[in-house]
């Protein structure tokens, strides 16, 4: 529970270079900050194209795990309704656009879906750490394939779980979008990490202090509530080792990450009543220079959908969070999960 003496604070997120207002007066007790959603988990859905046996109703397959045979565990497929077109050649800037500094590029890119299980009611925290590790290794394989396209600069891996988090399908899946540009939030994050490195000579994520912010830890990773969390009960899972790219992950670390992610999601479900959530793998552009390697460091961000973004946030880029991260970390850390 939050201290009754807490006063509002304005904290700077030095990784993403933004300000967050912590306003405990706007919150109930953090322990009461639970999702009001009613998760629906049907045992089957005969017409779901992501279920085993329904592959003919799905978009074209890119690869599956195992690589051959009908009894797959993971499938990576094209998105049936892609945000970008893989059929367009990346031809650079389009001509004939309005003035005023406007820029338009052809909508070339890749939008893929990673089907995490062949069985409809099975969700990510239901899988064992090895199986979750296999999902991570599928991300890695697909990123390495996308690296072959010279015009692809950044790959965003993300998962939307629950309708209010943006999921249009209830079957457990995640997505990957490969872009011919580096998104501005990524550029801002890298510039902010570069600034910290210039001032200290150290990576901001390697140096992060997590004493009161720690939720759990494993051999290779820690889970924390970040010091300037943008959203209530936001969680970062950070590699203990310095690494610029998620796709540098090996099989042993993938299983370790799977174990910690499973524990984190289960704790979040218990404490917050199985909220809809998003997770994003926050990495670096595919091509980084040797001078960028010392300060670029990937992490996995989890955002439970417990609040809405309002006009103040949209207008300023400054967020209001009613839950101090120290309180969120303590509540999640103390959740007891049976093995």
Automatic annotation (TrEMBL):
<dbReference type="GO" id="GO:0008270">
    <property type="term" value="F:zinc ion binding"/>
</dbReference>
<keyword id="KW-0808">Transferase</keyword>
<dbReference type="InterPro" id="IPR036265">
    <property type="entry name" value="HIT-like_sf"/>
</dbReference>
<dbReference type="GO" id="GO:0006012">
    <property type="term" value="P:galactose metabolic process"/>
</dbReference>
<protein>
    <recommendedName>
        <fullName>Galactose-1-phosphate uridyl transferase N-terminal domain-containing protein</fullName>
    </recommendedName>
</protein>
<keyword id="KW-0119">Carbohydrate metabolism</keyword>
<keyword id="KW-0548">Nucleotidyltransferase</keyword>
<keyword id="KW-0862">Zinc</keyword>
<dbReference type="InterPro" id="IPR053177">
    <property type="entry name" value="ADP-glucose_phosphorylase"/>
</dbReference>
<feature type="active site" description="Tele-UMP-histidine intermediate">
    <location>
        <position position="173"/>
    </location>
</feature>
<feature type="binding site">
    <location>
        <position position="51"/>
    </location>
    <ligand>
        <name>Zn(2+)</name>
    </ligand>
</feature>
<feature type="domain" description="Galactose-1-phosphate uridyl transferase N-terminal">
    <location>
        <begin position="8"/>
        <end position="183"/>
    </location>
</feature>
<keyword id="KW-0479">Metal-binding</keyword>
<feature type="binding site">
    <location>
        <position position="171"/>
    </location>
    <ligand>
        <name>Zn(2+)</name>
    </ligand>
</feature>
<dbReference type="InterPro" id="IPR005849">
    <property type="entry name" value="GalP_Utransf_N"/>
</dbReference>
<dbReference type="GO" id="GO:0008108">
    <property type="term" value="F:UDP-glucose:hexose-1-phosphate uridylyltransferase activity"/>
</dbReference>
<feature type="binding site">
    <location>
        <position position="48"/>
    </location>
    <ligand>
        <name>Zn(2+)</name>
    </ligand>
</feature>
<dbReference type="Pfam" id="PF01087">
    <property type="entry name" value="GalP_UDP_transf"/>
</dbReference>
<dbReference type="InterPro" id="IPR001937">
    <property type="entry name" value="GalP_UDPtransf1"/>
</dbReference>
<feature type="binding site">
    <location>
        <position position="120"/>
    </location>
    <ligand>
        <name>Zn(2+)</name>
    </ligand>
</feature>
């Amino acid at each position: 529970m939050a201290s009754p003496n807490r006063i509002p604070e304005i904290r700077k997120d030095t990784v993403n270079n933004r300000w967050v207002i912590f306003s405990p007066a706007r919150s109930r007790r953090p322990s009461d900050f639970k999702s009001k959603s009613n998760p629906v988990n049907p045992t089957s859905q005969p017409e779901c194209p992501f279920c085993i046996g329904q592959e003919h109703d799905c978009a074209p397959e890119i690869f599956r795990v195992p690589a051959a045979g009908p009894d797959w565990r993971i499938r990576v497929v094209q998105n049936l309704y892609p945000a970008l077109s893989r059929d367009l050649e990346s031809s650079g800037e389009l001509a004939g656009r309005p003035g005023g500094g406007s820029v338009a590029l052809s909508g070339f890119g890749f939008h893929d879906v990673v089907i995490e299980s062949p069985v409809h009611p099975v969700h990510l925290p239901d899988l064992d750490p090895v199986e979750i590790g296999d999902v991570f290794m599928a991300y890695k394989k697909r990123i390495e394939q996308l690296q072959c396209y010279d015009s692809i600069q950044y790959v965003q891996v993300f998962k939307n779980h629950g309708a209010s988090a943006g999921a249009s399908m209830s079957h457990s899946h995640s997505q990957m979008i490969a872009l011919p540009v580096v998104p501005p939030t990524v550029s801002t994050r890298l510039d902010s990490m570069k600034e910290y490195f210039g001032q200290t000579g150290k990576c901001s994520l390697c140096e992060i202090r997590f004493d009161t912010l720690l939720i759990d830890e494993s051999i290779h990773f820690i889970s924390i509530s970040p010091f300037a969390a943008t959203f209530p009960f936001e969680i970062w899972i950070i590699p203990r080792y310095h690494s610029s790219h998620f796709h540098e992950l090996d099989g042993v670390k993938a299983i370790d990450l799977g174990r910690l992610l499973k524990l984190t999601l289960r704790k979040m479900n218990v404490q917050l009543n199985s909220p809809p959530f998003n997770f994003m793998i926050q990495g670096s552009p595919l091509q980084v220079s040797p001078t960028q390697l010392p300060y670029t460091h990937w992490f996995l961000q989890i955002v439970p959908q417990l609040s809405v973004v309002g006009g103040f946030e949209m207008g300023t880029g400054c967020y209001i969070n009613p839950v101090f991260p120290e309180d969120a970390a303590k509540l999640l850390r103390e959740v007891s999960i049976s093995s």
